[in-house]
Amino acid sequence: MQTGDFLDKEIETLDLEALQSLQLERLKTTVRKASTSPFYAKRFRELGLRPEDIQSLSDVEHLPFTTKDDLRGEAYPYGFLTVPGENLVRLHASSGTTGRPTVIFHTKKDIRSWAHLVARCMYMAGVRKDDVFQNMMGYGLFTGGLGFHYGAELLETLIIPAGPGSSKRQIRLMQDFGTTVIHIIPSYALYLLKVMAELGINPRDDLSLRVAFLGAEPHTEGVRRRIEEAYGVDAFNSYGLSEMNGPGVALECPYKNGLHIWEDSYLVEIIDPVTLKPVPDGTEGELVLTSLNRDAMCLLRYRTKDITRLLPGRCPCGRTHRRIDRITGRTDDMIILKGVNIFPLQVEMVLMSIPEVGNNYQIVLETHNGIDTMRVQVEVDSEHFSEDIRYLEKLQKKIASELRGEILITPQVDLVEPNSLPRSDGKAIRVVDKRTVTVG
Ligand code: ADP
Ligand code: ZN
Q1: CA of 259 to the centre of ligand 2 (A)
Q2: Of 32, 249, 252, 433, which is the most exposed, with the fewest CB atoms less than 10 Å away?
Q3: CB-based burial label for 423 (10 Å; 0-12, 13-18, 19+)
Q4: Confidence at residue 440, expressed as pLDDT on a 0 to 100 scale
């Protein structure tokens, strides 16, 4: 295990008091800068708030929240800028998973500090100069590709900027150049296994992979385990969002007991998404982040809509930055069916624990005779697929009953052939909502 080995030892192991004092100093600067942007200048005026009012970390609660709608509303695209336009060197956009993409601008310094955070993450997972890093995330407006690219470049790792898709080419690149580290969307990693199987390649034996960064979409521990076993890699959960740069916000250390969130660069709050009040430590809620080290756009109390909790205790790796739990979903993703709240990842958790279940599934919500129903389409694992109707019926019943145990309603389960469900090169679409009545 790569413990005791840090890229930024001093910052990563700061004691609580020193870390908080750094945060406060950066928070004050951030608030001062933010107040010069048209968006926050107006908000501050409306709230009668002055930057000097922020004198302690707990004063953060006086600051206004910022939402995705704020970023794509009236202030779009330049209303959050705190620097003259000539200082901007790049813009990125979110994927647009839940509507119009948001746009984030960067100065040269922003790009540098973002790259540094990603490098810190990669180093923490054990990536070094002699690795060969194949980046299978989208290059371009999406932050996954360029974000990791610049981080890896700081570590002077050999980078293969493959981008997503073209599966056969990806495999060829891995073979030809002895790729040791990959950055990949987990649903794509599962799909790629099928292509490898068709080519007669067993990634464990035939490739040199060692580390995988899994990011960009919610996934369960079960998916991580499947990827680790099939590829023979150490897989790290990587969390980030465009509004906070992109990847590099939080990553697991080798202990994999939550994701260290870089508190020198982000101020963390977990709130109840309904009351907007902080929840006690250890309780699940919506992650709210304030950027502490950005120039072009300083976002205050950004509501990520991602559900997680802060984990108690210190990590044995020696890093003092707190850990968030694996994201269990977005508040937007929550399905309300027959009065029951369900997160798609609860379905994934059950499915991935059943060996006969293959690597892809989709949830379809429909209305029949005025009643909302859930259908779960499940690919059967190729080794377990059979034409035997009795076997399939039994498996169907088993899956439906295990799902009921977790989500409290019995969905209809459709078993489909391995690798027959639609897939994308980007984030997987897990839920198709065809309901005509969408409430309750
Ligand atoms: P969009 O919000 O349009 O999807 P981004 O491309 O910025 O835009 O994606 C950021 C979002 O992706 C996060 O807010 C989160 O919902 C999801 N995400 C990213 N990494 C992870 C991860 N490791 N686990 C769960 N969700 C993740
Ligand atoms: Zn740790």
Answers
A1: 8
A2: 433
A3: middle
A4: 44
